[in-house]
Amino acid sequence: MEDEKSIFVIARSGSKAAGCGAIRRIDDSTGELKRMYAKEQGLGVGTSILNSLENKALEFGYSRLICETRKINVGACSFYIRNGFQVIPNYGKYQGRDEAVCFEKRIR
Prior knowledge:
By secondary structure, the protein is α+β, with helices and mostly antiparallel strands. The chain has helices at residues 45-60, 74-82; strands spanning 7-13, 16-27, 30-38, 64-70, 86-88, 100-106. The radius of gyration is 13 Å and the shape is globular.
């Protein structure tokens, strides 16, 4: 994470990691969510991580976040949609990959 507009966060429950997530810079207005993971579902860890990353993205000056997951990962797809993301055409290295689905969220 050498870029000053990139960040990796870890959520903890006591001394143990409960989840993580990252943002990497795509361009001056766009950050890409990476490595979103919550060890246990339904506890709000993923939402907390996402909220933290969205706030950081605003501090970085980003106006949108993008991300990719696999279509088979129904839980992740539902999570992004529940949190205001919309499906977009696959970008970058995900173009032409039928197993991938990409999302975007405009942030303010």
